[in-house]
Amino acid sequence: MRLLAEYYKIDDADIGEGTVVRDYVNLYGCKIGRDCKIAAYAEIQKGVIIGDRCKIEAFAFIPSGVTIEDEVFIGPHACFTNDRVPKAVGDWEVTPTVVKKGASIGANATIICGITIGENALVGAGAVVTKNVPEGAVVVGSPAKIIKKKAVSKVKKCSGRNKK
Questions:
Q1: What pTM does this model have?
Q2: Domain limits for position 126
């Protein structure tokens, strides 16, 4: 980890090699993979898992219950929730959320808990995501709706028939 910060709170966080952490970041009880970039003012809470080569922009809020796979972009001011029925007093329940490999979440997007954002999906800036986002989908608006499906390329294994 490269700590490029003078002011920060890091408590019981597992941070991978090559990850860069900037000023005014709060990280507690989370696991962050290798070669990530965590920008200023981000908060990543207990139990969050972030994969390798992710970029978390300034002011992102990632609470307990969120899992982010490899190569994910989280834009500035993106906000995840983790309780479907929040209240100031009494019990609450963490509802898990998953962001799959290669997905991108735009600035100021809000991700309601209990959903999965598919591999290589794109959440537009300011979107409010209330339902699962399929692999390769582009969603925008409030509530977020699919406006496009990106072509998803799959690598096929060679059967060996055309060898020379």
A1: 0.87
A2: 2-149
* 64 located within any domain: yes
How many helices, marked H, and strands, marked E, lie in the chain? 0, 22
Indicate whether 16 belongs to any domain: yes
Residue 61 sits in a domain whose CATH number is 2.160.10.10
144 vs 44: CA distance, rounded Å: 24
Residue 84 lies in a domain: yes
pLDDT in tens, 111-160: 999 999 999 999 999 999 999 999 999 999 999 999 999 776 655 555 55
> What's the structural domain count of the chain?
1
CA 52 from chain center: how many Å? Answer: 11
Inter-residue contact 29 to 13 (CB < 8 Å)? yes
The answer to whether the beta carbons of residues 131 and 116 sit under 8 Å apart is: no
3-state helix, strand, coil in the chain (%, to 5): 0, 35, 65
Query: Considering only CA atoms, which of 106, 14, 92, 1 is closest in space to residue 60?
Result: 106
